[in-house]
Every structure is written in structure tokens, then in C-alpha cells.
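Quick board copy: two proteins, each given as sequence then C-alpha cells.
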Amino acid sequence: MKIAIVGAGFAGLSSAKVLRELGHDIVVYEKAPDVGGVWSATRRYPGLKTQNDKGTYSLSDLAMPADYPEWPSGEQVQAYLERYADTFGLRPLLRLGTEVTHAAPAPGGGWDVTTAGGTEHADHLVLASGIFSRPFIPPIPNADVFAKLGGRIIAASDWHDRDLVRDKNVIVLGYGKSACDITVEISQVAASTTVVARELLWKMPRKIKGVVNYKYLMLTRLGEGLFRYRSVSGPEKVLHARNSMLANQMLGSVEKVTTGQLGLRSVGLVPDGRFADIARSTVSLVSEGFFEGVADGSIAVRRDDVVSQFVERDGRAYAELASGEQLPADVVIAATGWTQDIPFLDDEVMDRLTDDNGDFLLYRQIHPVDVPDLSFAGYNSSFFSPLSAEVSAIWIGSMLGGNHTLPDRDEMRRRVGERLAWMRERTRGKHARGTNVIPFSVHNIDEVLSDVGINVGPLTRAKQWLLPIRPQNYRHITPALAQRLRRRPAPAARPVVAQA
């Protein structure tokens, strides 16, 4: 099949490699001039580092270089993806600097994909542009007043130059990893640096008590198993017996140690709720120097507050908070999440992709129930996003090759609806339109591979309870699937992969 892929980050590159290996003709469209997705030089901010260690943040058939630090920088991750493209000969498939402006279902099947260079037809379209494609900047009243006084509002992904904030009064909106990362960088050159956080998130130190690496707590099956999934089996039954008594005790211990180690009480930054509440959204790795900056006064945090408007006082701009406090402001940087739209799809297609709540109707987080010849790769927020993206590409190739079949439309809608209802309830609506699988990333990988019928062996799965997930353990799956598909008789016609 002729398959068009939109995006050349982890999801797009791994989809290109996997689907080409399974016999398809591939073209990859990427609007940036380089590969990388969120790691592109056009998008990364100073100080950007991975949240995962290098051993868990890679694709299965190419490990991060041995000389990389444990938590690679944004530049290093982008260089890794350049190397991936070169190692597996993906360059001829890439159309860098080529933005998809429109994609529409074609009469008779497939998709017509339009760029500045014209329109091309593809039998199947894979969206690998990710859930972090367009930053969200909250509207703030009197932004025009702020601009007239020389103020600037930018997204975190658009901040690339420290001189923009040098000797300025800077306000950072948000409290996720990006917000805290850039705050540390800004505080080194700005006149003042204030974080305004609507809600505090729990942060994890890289090493608990300076000894136990974060990856042994959160990047293992045991770490994931501490949070109750929709159904529990095996060791999870023990963890969640008697109203999850054992799991809650273990999470409570992590919460207590983390609170003390980071000095959260002394700086007044203990989040509301319990550490277990990260199952409702996400956990963030602590930004080195952030809490130290709060303690020494170089970083200020206004918790449980928002900027309600801009005001002018004595010819200067101030950001007025909902609490009534007014802060001098020259630059506002928004690290406030992403707008999960797909601008090159028509409204009619988007209506079929989503339910009445605006959540994506994706079976296995991949397959649109009501839109034919379309798949999503890596369209989820996962602790193991490179591996999750690669596994979704394997699932797509398995489906297109007839290795596995889908339930009927009504059954898929039922399963997707039940999952979305559960996600909305457990996250209190913070489920990123149905795309946030954290902290159940390995469960998602297992479910996807259960359809394919190829997974890591029981011994590897047993080791994963105590050791971090190693993507290299999954490198055999694509070759095994390719061999299986070669033994299948060729289909008489292109398979219909969904019914509208």
C-alpha cells in the first residue's frame, strides 16, 4: 500500500521504518526543516531534557549512545533521531519542510493529501504528529494593553533565546516539567522570575534519598502496578487486595520521602491530595535547581492562582492575579499544555473522530472507529512514548496485513466508550481528550501487542516487575511479524479497515 505519514518525530520515523519493513511504500511529511517532532530545533527550549533515562527512552532497534548522560538533552535526542533516520535509510522517504495543509478521504477509499507542492493520493494515512502539535496559550484580558507597553506573551516551545528574558520581569504560567525547566533557565538571567500555577503537581526526584533511581520506582511494572487499573491480575491482585492497602502504603512512603527530600513543606509547595493522585493525570520529574531557587528566593511561586488580566500602573505593565496581587511583567511564557486539534482535517472528519465530549474515539489508542483508511501512531501520553509509538506502528502493519482482525464497529464503539468513561472518571476529566494512558503505559503496550500476537516472553515480563522497561527487548517483534505476513497469501484486494 501507499502510506502517507504526517510527522517525523519518534512516531513518524518508527512508523516509516516498521511499515516499510512490512512491505509498504512510504512517504513522510514534516513541516519542520529537521526530524525530531517536539525535539526539533524549531521547538525545543533552553534546558530541555528528557523525563526518562536514556535506557527507557529510545526505539527498540537503536539504543541511545553510550556517551549520552542518563537524562539526555533536547539536542541529544534530536541528534539520536537524525542518526535513526540515517541508520535505517529513511532519508529518501522524508519530505522535510513540507506542511500538510489539507487531508481528505478520497472517493473509493484512501486519502488525498495536500501540501504546497500539490495533492497526492495515499491508500492509508497515518497521523504521527502527536498530541503536542500546537501549544495552548490561555487568553488573558487586556493582552493588547500588555503588548502596547512592550510586553510579550509566548509559548514555552517558542522560547529559544535567553536574551529575550535577560534583565526582564518574567512570569511563567504552568507547573509541569516544561514550566519548571524553563523557570530554572530564566531565573539565571531575569530580573525576577515568578511561576503562576493553577494547580501543583507532584514531582519526583531523580534519586530517592540520593540512592534509588526514579526509574526503578516509576518505569517498571511494579511502579505501574501500584495504581489500580481497570482490571487487576497476577501480582496486581496482591497490591490491590483489601482496598489497595499494600499499594497505598507503598505510595504513601514515596510521598513522605519525596516531600521531605525536596523540602516541599518548607517552601509551601506540597500539592493538594495524595501522591497516588498522579494516576489522575501525570507525574513530573523534578527540574534540577527549581526548589533550590524557590528556597533562595531567585524563583517565586504563586500557587493555586491564575493571571486574571493585565493592567497599567505608572506607565508599566502588571499581571493581576485572581488573588488580587499585581506582579510587574515584561515577558509571559505559557507552559500550559497543547491544543489537541488536527488543523488539516475537515470539521466533518473531526466530528466522526470524536464523541460528544470531544474525546477521540480510537480503538487501542490507534484506530478510528468511524473513519476508514486512517490510523494514529503515538497519539497518547505514555511513560514510554518512543516504544508506545513503535508498537502502535506494528499494530497498524499487523492490521493492514491481515495478521489480526478488528471487532465489529458496534463492539469497538462499546469498548472505546467504556474506556473513555473510565478515563474521565479516574482523571476527573484530565485525560487529554482520551489520549493520556499514564500511568498505565505498559498495560497499553501489552494490549496492543496482544492483538498482534507477538510480545516479549514471560521471563522478560517477570524481570520488568523490578527492572525498567528496555525497548531493546521488543526489537524482535517487527521482523517476526514481517516473517508471519510473508507466509500469508496475498489479499485479492486492498483490505477495508473500517466502516463509516
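And the next:
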Amino acid sequence: MKLALFDLDHTLLNTDSDHSWGEFLVNEGLVDPVHHRAMNDKFYEDYKKGQLDPYAYNEFVFQFLTQHDHDYLTELHQLFMQKVIRPQMRPEGFKAIQCHKDAGHEIVGITATSDFITAPIFREFGITEIIATNAEVVDGKYTGKVTNIACYQQGKLTRLEQWLAGRDVTESWAYSDSINDRFLLEHADHAIAVNPDDRLEALAKEQGWEIQDWSI
């Protein structure tokens, strides 16, 4: 198997879907605007610094999910896609995915953001194999907890290794924008830094990795 791994936020998207979801809830008047925005912004700054507690952040995000039923959340996510996400989907991301599909490669979306937020986005990009931080569901309701290992930093590599169990990979590509994904990029045969943050750009130059601009 030849494998292409795509990060989502600021890689395939021109935004961060997790932070954007929080802003969307504020703008729709669905959460306390002052508290929710302050918490959302703080966690996002922690992420950019590489200091995020992924369990604490996802439990903050999942609080809203515990308060509503599946049908309502599905409708709300569709509105989120329409208002926020689709305008931020990078055409160069679609092109890269198609290039790997044409070559017969297995394509996996891999993200630290929760499956609730990201699975519909990845599917719109044509990616159906998804590794994400998993929101626990019991009897059809979100519990507010993370199940399995959070798909963040080294945890992303651990989750990939779980997914790969029994599969033989002969060549791999990984696309990401963030220094948080250095472990994933170092693991791949071909690392591609997409609009990298400053620390990833420095590492990419040091390692001789390809740097691409997908911004719109």
C-alpha cells in the first residue's frame, strides 16, 4: 500500500475548523459569548504554541454536544459547513488529493480535531478514511469525554500505528502546516509542509522537506 496522509486545519482548509466551530456557536447565539470565546481563544493559543492539553480542549468542545440530540447537531453542522467551511476549502488541497487518487494511493485524513467536526469536512474533500480525536458516544448521546488516545502530536503517530495494524506500507506522504505534526512528518517517506508555521518552516528547510503554498 502507498499511503497519503492529510492534516485538515490550515492544510486542506484555510482556517482552523475547531476554533471556527467555537466562533460559529458564538455568532449563532448558542453559547455564552464572553466565556466561550475566551476559552476557545485560550485553547487555540495553546495549540499554536504546541502546549495544548487535547483532552481538556476537546472536553470543552464536547460540552455543547452533550446538550443536544444527534439530528439537531447534524443540522447545525450542515449550517457550519455552508456558512464557514466551504469558503475555506483550498482548491490546491482537492488537487493534491486527486493526484494521489489517480496514482492509486490510499488516502487518510488525520487530525487532532474531533471526528464530530472533521469527518463531514474530510468526506467533502473525498476522504473517507479518517483518524481523529474521537468523541465518546453512549446510547446515541455524546458523553463529553474523549475515547481512545487524542490524535495530537505523538498521539497522532500512535493513532496512525493503530490504524495501520496488519497493513504493509511501501511508501508514504504526509501533508501538514503545523510543528505539532513533526512526528507524523518525520515518520513519512515524503514530508510536505503546507503553508507551514514558523517553526515547521525552519524544520522543513533543515530537513530538506518540500514546502508548498496552498493559500487562497
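Board note added afterward: The chain has a mean pLDDT of 96.
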